Amino acid sequence: MPQPGATSRILVTGGAGFIGSHFVRSLFSGAYPGLAGSRVTVLDKLTYAGNPANLDPVRDQPGFAFVEGDITDAGLVDSLLADHDAVVHFAAESHVDRSITGAADFVVTNVVGTQTLLDAAHRREIGPFVHVSTDEVYGSIAEGSWPETDPLAPNSPYSASKASSDLIALAYHRTHGLDVRVTRCSNNYGPYQFPEKVIPLFITNLLDGGKVPLYGDGLNIRDWLHVDDHCQGIALVLEKGRAGEVYNIGGGTEITNKELTDRLLSACGATWDSVDYVEDRKGHDRRYSVDWRKINAELGYEPRHDFESGLAETVAWYRDNRAWWEPLKQRAGLA
């Protein structure tokens, strides 16, 4: 099967979303020399979280194409993969709270959609197939960090759907020899993130002088990963990763939600009077922490963005780009 290189034709699913669009913009900006000259087709359903404006900076690039469509559409997926030799699969329903109130879309998109892509990739002998997943599939960890060999123990419908898709993807490697490579990242942040996720939700609410909700005692711990570092890791896995392997991608900054809230209040010039303590989320995992020594040792991955400056730059981006996020919040009923 072809390896990524100057003549690669890459299908990027979910490429109009937060992480996928960053990957595409970075690729065309020359951030991934090993992928220089690649043709890229973005396949995106443009659900509430998919925004065509995220791709405006690359829309006129030679080699870029956009297709609006659903990864569960077997005919469409098969026809697209006939003209590609690699897949980077970002497309997913990803908001935990939404999965708690309604899990059906998560199962259809994350499980059935992934299986539909894998079927077509197998028929068309496509590879590599990079399946982008999450550390939430591991569950919750009181101390230490998860290596890639730890068993999966998801607690939310969202993380269960992603764990299911991970297992199906790896099964296609073991059964059919498909060149599948799985990445599992910690919590992402950065510009262009849909404002239902905690960091952009808090920033945009605070910039508007509003309140922010803090779940439970606020002591849940997350490892924060800048989207640019995450996409750097994905590019390395696409270029040099091994078939059938899982690679954790972490950011190296573990803080409680309460500490995160304090930093955002300070950055936005607000006080704790802006915080509403709310009932804890059902099945709220207490702590996430991935061991990313494998991708560091094998592929040379290293986070380049320290959290303090990365968060300050993110706050500044939302402050300067109201025209991007205000319509999104209004349409999603978040305003």
Automatic annotation (TrEMBL):
CDD domains: dTDP_GD_SDR_e (cd05246). It holds the Pfam family GDP_Man_Dehyd. SUPFAM superfamilies: NAD(P)-binding Rossmann-fold domains. It is an enzyme of class 4 (lyase). It catalyses: dTDP-alpha-D-glucose = dTDP-4-dehydro-6-deoxy-alpha-D-glucose + H2O. InterPro entries: dTDP_Gluc_deHydtase, NAD(P)-bd_dom, NAD(P)-bd_dom_sf. It comes from the Bacteria. Its EC number is 4.2.1.46. Its cofactor is NAD(+). GO terms for molecular function: dTDP-glucose 4,6-dehydratase activity. The keyword Protease does not apply. Residues 11-314 form the NAD(P)-binding domain. Keywords: Lyase, NAD. GO terms for biological process: nucleotide-sugar metabolic process. PANTHER family: DTDP-D-GLUCOSE 4,6-DEHYDRATASE-RELATED (PTHR43000). Belongs to the NAD(P)-dependent epimerase/dehydratase family. dTDP-glucose dehydratase subfamily. This is dTDP-glucose 4,6-dehydratase.
